[in-house]
Amino acid sequence: MAHPKHRVSKTRRDKRRTHYKATAPTLATCSNCGATILYHRVCPECGFYRGKKAIEVKAE
């Protein structure tokens, strides 16, 4: 089993962790209503996906 020979300093540890960053999701605009949506998802505003009606949206 692996066992550390020396303590890893905070600087060295943090340098290694600099690459673990969150990325912002890629957003698109709905071709039907113009709302901002995530890629490859049905628009929650109008229910369209790739120009076709996918789901019925309840009117509030």
SSE pattern, N- to C-terminal:
HEEEE
Multimeric state: single chain
Main sheet strand line-up: 1-2
Give the biggest beta sheet: 2 strands, antiparallel
Round the Cα radius of gyration to an integer and report it: 23 Å
Strand proportion, as a percent range, falls in: 15-25%
- Write down how many β-strands occur, each being a DSSP E stretch of 2 or more residues: 4
Shape: rod-shaped
Relative helix content: 10-25%
> What is the CA–CA distance across the termini?
60 Å
Structural class computed from helices and strand pairing: alpha+beta
Mean pLDDT: 91
List segments where confidence is low: pLDDT < 50 over at least 5 consecutive residues: none
Count helical runs.
1
SSE map:
Elements: H1 10-17, E1 27-29, E2 36-38, E3 48-49, E4 52-53
